[in-house]
Amino acid sequence: MSLIKALRISGADVLPLIEGGKGVAVSNGVSAGAWAAAGGVGTFSGVNADFIDELGRRVPLIYRGRTRRERHDELMEHSIKGGVSQARIAHDLAGNRGRIHMNVLWEMAGCERVLHGVLEQAKGLIHGITCGAGMPYKLSEIAAQYDVYYHPIVSSGRAFRALWKRAYHRFSDWLGSVVYEDPWLAGGHNGLSNNENPKEPEPAYTRVRELRQTMRGFGLERTPIIMAGGVWWLREWHDWIDNDELGPIAFQFGTRPLLTQESPIPEVWKRRLTSLLPGDVLLQRFSPTGFYSSAVKNDFMHGLIERSGRQVSFSEAADDEFDYAFKLNARGKEVFLRTADAPRVADWAELGFTQPMRTPDDTLIFVSPAEARQIKRDQADCMGCLSQCLFSNWATTETHTTGRLPDPRSFCIQKTLQEISHGGDVDNNLMFAGHNVFKFREDPFYANGFVPTVRQLVQRILSGN
Fold first, then answer.
1. In angstroms, rounded to a whole number, what is the distance separating the alpha carbons of residues 234 and 286?
2. Which of 289, 285, 307 is closest to 372 using CA atoms?
3. Which residues are within 8 A (CB) of 160 and not within 5 positions of it... i.e. 6 or more apart?
4. How far apart are CA 229 and CA 162, in angstroms?
5. Which of 30, 31, 39, 64 is most deeply packed, by most CB within 10 A?
């Protein structure tokens, strides 16, 4: 017997089970269409989606532009084609069941451009847009223009209040739900504010109750809240269901759908999911977006941690604090370190980390010459995938720059996410996951290497398990 009842989402009564969006080809039209066909809400990623041609072949994007601006325009056009193709696949597979949503990140470059391009060309195929990673004030206006529902992703009632008062109250008829994403448990980019401690999680129930109170103040007592982050077995959320204090609640699954037959991630990634242990996911701030994010502690993540650990402050001029002269490059350019840091720099050099690189925060990190070359190459190859990138200093402004030094402590997120989602090394690329990913190992549903179809997973979830 199901623990939950149908709920009206994006204009239809569906199972209140939502497939999490997940960026860069990690949820696509196949997975979204299968989830909708099972009666829920399928979500494909509209973040640089794979373009599938009329013969079912993935068309890779080969950049031909010589400048970042030219490559950015190529990426935007390819992303629109990709989003449209994924919407068509999802719609066809859904068979008029469930709902189809597209997920985007507000801080991805050209988000508005991609939304307009996809929604214009895929009319009638997409029922809702989910959007987080920033404050998407214009989301409501864009969605209403194309008669689709919008589902903002927030991590606090305060954030939703700001969105509502500035923009959403003008397009309230198209507000499909509010997605509460637990910033301490969800995978990928999270909405931790500067006032919140990443090491001190706050109870989801309290924060969702506050969100509902905020929404009731705006007359939104029947608008669903979608709980995202940390959801695995519905039996653990029994007291949330039919709870008058919380109102209508749906549940989003981001990590669990990764291990399904329809999931587009490579088999090696699927196998890795079943080996992870509690504590194998790290909440950190290496992303070039500047947001916190949660990712698996693999060699890639350990490399970023160690790189930032080889870091010292410096000054352009000598003073009482910075009194140790240090040659910055072969041309003899000198900066000044603290004398106490000199032995550490010498130790790093002994280990081969001889190349200093400036950061925007008046520090130097020390890397190997090969690593320095790769960092500089990745920065030069920037294709402008974010609205603002800490790593390359690209920005979607008239000057196309943030005005700050590129930050070598970060990385090219487009490069690594494209690589891992298309068969790259799972040890040496960024692997996003929610903090409950270790439950694949513990859940008897996945015993003996069983990989369910989406329909089997949905039926399992409905049982409470």
1. 32
2. 307
3. 152, 154, 178, 211, 214, 215
4. 22
5. 31
Burial 130-144 (b: 16+ CB within 10 A, else e): bbbbbbbeebbebbb
Range from 1-5, 221-225, 343-347 carrying the lowest mean pLDDT: 1-5
β-strands 17-19, 334-337 pairing:
unpaired
Distance CA 236, CA 176 (A): 25
Q: Which are the contacts of 306, defined by CB distance < 8 A and separation ≥ 6?
A: none
In a domain, 343, yes or no: yes
CA distance 326 to 343: 12
Q: pLDDT tens digit string along 353-364?
A: 999 999 999 999
Buried b (16+ CB within 10 A) or exposed e, 256-273: bbbbbebbbbeeebbebb
pLDDT at 195: 86
Cα-based angle 70, 71, 74 (whole degrees, multiple of 5):
90
pTM exceeds 0.90: yes
Q: Indicate if 311 and 449 belong to the same structural domain.
A: no
Which helix (H) or strand (E) element contains residue 459? helix 454-462
The reply to whether 71 and 135 lie within a common domain is yes
Mean pLDDT throughout 415-429? 96
Sorted by sequence, the CB contacts under 8 Å of residue 192 that are 6+ apart come out as 155, 183, 184, 198, 283, 291, 292
The answer to whether position 287 is within a domain reads no
Task: State the total domains in the chain.
Answer: 2
Q: HSE, CB side, 13 Å, CA atoms: give it for residue 280.
A: 20
Whole-number Cα distances in Å, 198 to 228, 368, 408: 17, 31, 23
Give one DSSP letter per residue of 389-427, joined into a string: -TTT--BSSSS-S-SS---TTS--HHHHHHHHHTT--SS
Contact call for residues 246 and 216 (beta carbons, < 8 A): no
Which position has the token pair 């050209």?
Answer: 110
- Do 264 and 311 fall within a single domain? no
For residue 255, the tally of other CB atoms under 10 A from its CB is 28
Residues 6+ apart with CB under 8 A from 340: none
